[in-house]
Every structure is written in C-alpha cells, then in structure tokens.
Design goal:
Blueprint: H1 2-42, H2 58-81, H3 91-110, H4 121-132, H5 140-159, H6 161-164, H7 193-207, H8 213-230, H9 233-249, H10 254-273, H11 284-301, H12 311-315, H13 332-364, H14 369-381, H15 400-408
Helix pairs in contact: 1-2, 1-4, 1-5, 2-4, 3-4, 3-13, 4-15, 5-7, 5-8, 7-8, 7-9, 7-14, 9-14, 10-13, 10-14, 11-13, 13-14
C-alpha cells in the first residue's frame, strides 16, 4: 500500500510539473506576441529606422509589463512550491545559459544603460525550466502556439491587410517586387516579414512534436504557407535546412547522432564565416555586405567588451554609413562581437558547444528536435539576428526557451541494445551414418 501511495504521489507531481511547464510556455509566448498585436491594432504601421519596437503606445506598454510580471510571478511560484526539492545538478548548463545575459546586463549597467522589462525575462525563464525539469514532449505546446501564430498572421493579412501586411514608414505597402506572392509581404502582429518569418521557422521544428500525423501535416502546411507569404528568403532557406535535417535524422540512433554532430557543426561554421567571404562586395545579400563591413569596423573599436546592446539603436540617429539599413548586424556572430565583444563571443561559443553535445546525445536516444532546431537556428543566424539575451525578446520563446528545455529538461531513457540472434549450431562435417536399429532386450517380445 505504501509503495502504491508513493507511486500515486510521484505521478501527481509529474502531472503538476507538466501543467506548470505548459503554462510557462504560454506565458512566454504571450509576452512576445500580445504586446505587438496590441501595437499593430492600435498604433501606426510601417517599418522603423531602429528596428523592432516592443510596443507603441500606453496599452501595448502596459500589456508588455503586465505579461513580464506574470512570467516572473509564475516562475517565482514554481520555485517556492518546490523549494524543498530544488535540483542540485545541471548547474554548469544553467550557468552557461545565464552568463551571456549577465555579461551584457553588467556591461550596459556599467555605462549607464538600463534594460527594459523584457530584458529581465531570460534568467526568470531559464531558472523556471531548471526547476521544472520538463520532458521534451511537453514542448508540443510550443508547436501548437507556433501554428496559432501562423494562423493569426494569415487571418490578419486576409481580413485586416492594412494591419497584417508589411508597410513602409509612410504607411504604403512595400514594393511588390520584393514579395513572393501578389498579396504583399505578410507581417502579422510584427513590424516586418523577416521578424514573422524568423518566429515561424524557428518554431517550426516544434510542430513535429504534435500528436497525430494529421495535426503535424495540417499545422506544418499552415506554417509553410505563412512563411512563403512573409517573403523572408533567409527564413525559407532555414526551413529547407530544417526539413533536410529532420528527414536525415528521423528515428535517431547512434549513426544519426554522428550525422547530427556533423550537420550542426557544419551549419554553424558556414554561418559564422559567411561575412568573411563577401566583405569586398557591399551589395552582397541585399546590402548586408555593407552592414557586415561596418559592423566589423565597429567591433575593432572595442574588441574585448564591445559597444553595448544599444549600439545599432544609437547609430540610427547619426550619419553613420550603415545607419540607413542597420537595424542590427544582420548576422548573429557579428551582433555578438559588436554588442558584447570577445567576452560575449567566448560565452556564446561555450553555450553552443553544450547545446550541441546535448542535442547529439538526444539524437542517439531517439529525440531529434534539439538538433533540427540548432541547424535551423544556424542558417537563420547567417543573415539575421535571431537570438538576444537582453533584447530581441520576440524570439525568446522559439530560441532560448527550447535550448534551455533541452539542456535542463529530463533526458530520455537509453535505448535498449538490440538482442543478438542466437547463433546456429555448428554444421556437421563428414558423411552422415544411418542410425543403428534398436536391439531388443533379452526376453522382450519382438
């Protein structure tokens, strides 16, 4: 009876942890989407000279702050309820996830720059995942939310094209020549098609976690359709890479774990080195060559500690040569160097190594999602900035959250070794002699 009662308590605790993990995913998603949706519905639409704004007006501002507080309160409640059973392992991955945020925050505070409320989300979310120790399968909630985001964006584009279609600063639709479809460039609740495209493509691997083949096919088709409508070439390239990775790694196992290691390392290396190949061509990748050259020059001014997270926002109001098109570095590696210097670059490399090793281990045990995500992330980061530690909070739910889930969540059981077939008895050699007839015992009836 005692053993059964203990089992019941264990199962109840696991159900509670699973529920709390899903609530955390929903809250982080809401903090990234709902303030921007409110801004889209209540404020002017159009591209901005300083990139993505979290909110525009009192309502989006208030909503954003309320949701950040909600995430913080929920994670604090998670810690308090489990204060007697807090984990004592995975401290190194936890530290690796927090150090880049801590370095950038400390550097900015030292020079007098204060982060906004969204800049405090990362440590709260990471600690919450560390305490909850969720299973990877519970990230199917993220898959549902990604499909919902795609559906919301498509609905806005069809029903409210004045809101859901990407527009210039003057409020006019962007030149149709940049769009892959005649309906314009889909932006949904975000301020550009590239931002929506990154959210969808980085969340697309989670759609593969949905239950049922029909749900995965229907959800995936909606996400792909919305991605094509965004006309985000970098996101479409990342989608192709993700589809290939998912197909190659399907089923997992040791052989596919080796392929995962090669794929993640190769995609990351190509992404990191891409700017060096086009520094002499300022028009490469739609003028990214110019931005990359200017970003390298900015990094050389402060190579160790960087320029701070507000660098690109600051130069937008100047006559700098790259100010007209540099919302950010348009490359994750250069953004890392420019904002946080070599110190941040080392911390990020260590985090990537830990995430890559964990992803390969999980492929060996049959879980391919983390490896597919890292491949998609590497390709996306070659032309965009998809990860932010104290900014870019709109991508937090599809980047930092699932990486923390993989590094800090429960690992699957090891696959049992395949039983070997029993070896056949050795074949007889030489001629087979006929068996002798039995000789009856004396006195036995014949």
């Amino acid at each position: 009876m005692r053993a059964e009662a203990a089992d019941d308590r264990t199962r109840a605790a696991e159900r509670r942890d699973a529920r709390d993990a899903v609530v955390l995913v929903v809250l982080v998603w809401a903090a990234g989407v709902l303030p921007r949706l409110a801004a889209a519905l209540t404020g002017p639409r159009g591209s901005s000279a300083v990139g993505e704004q979290a909110a525009a007006g009192p309502l989006p501002d208030l909503l954003g702050q309320v949701l950040v507080v909600a995430v913080g309160v929920w994670c604090a409640a998670v810690v308090v309820v489990r204060r007697r059973d807090l984990p004592r392992d995975r401290l190194l991955p936890l530290l690796l996830l927090l150090l880049p945020w801590g370095w950038l925050l400390g550097r900015d505070l030292f020079v007098g720059d204060r982060p906004d409320a969204q800049g405090l989300l990362l440590p709260v979310v990471v600690v919450g995942v560390w305490v909850l120790r969720p299973r990877l399968e519970q990230l199917r909630a993220l898959g549902v939310l990604v499909v919902a985001t795609a559906g919301l964006a498509v609905a806005m584009g069809l029903v409210l094209p004045g809101v859901g279609i990407y527009r210039t600063g003057a409020g006019d639709p962007v030149d149709a020549g940049e769009s892959l479809v005649p309906l314009g460039i889909l932006a949904g609740p975000y301020t550009s098609g590239n931002n929506l495209g990154q959210v969808l493509v980085l969340g697309a691997p989670a759609v593969l976690l949905l239950r049922g083949r029909a749900a995965r096919v229907a959800g995936g088709a909606l996400v792909v359709a919305a991605l094509v409508w965004t006309s985000s070439r970098s996101s479409l390239a990342a989608l192709v890479a993700g589809v290939v990775a998912a197909a190659v790694l399907a089923g997992g196992g040791r052989v596919r774990a080796v392929l995962a290691a090669l794929g993640v390392a190769g995609a990351t290396a190509v992404s990191a080195l891409l700017p060096l190949a086009v520094l002499d061509d300022p028009e490469a990748f739609t003028n990214r060559g110019l931005i990359w050259a200017g970003s390298l020059a900015a990094w050389r001014q402060h190579p160790v500690v960087g320029q701070g997270t507000g660098y690109y926002t600051d130069i937008a109001g100047t006559t700098d040569a790259i100010a007209g098109s540099a919302f950010h570095a348009h490359h994750q590696g250069l953004q890392t160097l420019v904002t946080g210097g070599a110190v941040l670059a080392v911390l990020v490399v260590l985090l990537l190594l830990a995430a890559g090793v964990e992803a390969v281990r999980r492929v060996a045990r049959g879980q391919t999602y983390p490896a597919v995500l890292l491949v998609v992330l590497a390709v996306s980061c070659a032309l965009e900035v998809s990860v932010g530690f104290v900014d870019r909070d709109l991508f937090l739910v599809v980047t930092v959250l699932p990486v923390a889930w993989s590094l800090l969540g429960r690992r699957p059981e090891r696959r049992p070794a395949r039983p070997r077939r029993p070896s056949a008895p050795p074949a007889a050699t030489g001629p087979v002699l006929p068996a002798r007839p039995a000789v009856p015992a004396p006195g036995a009836p014949r």
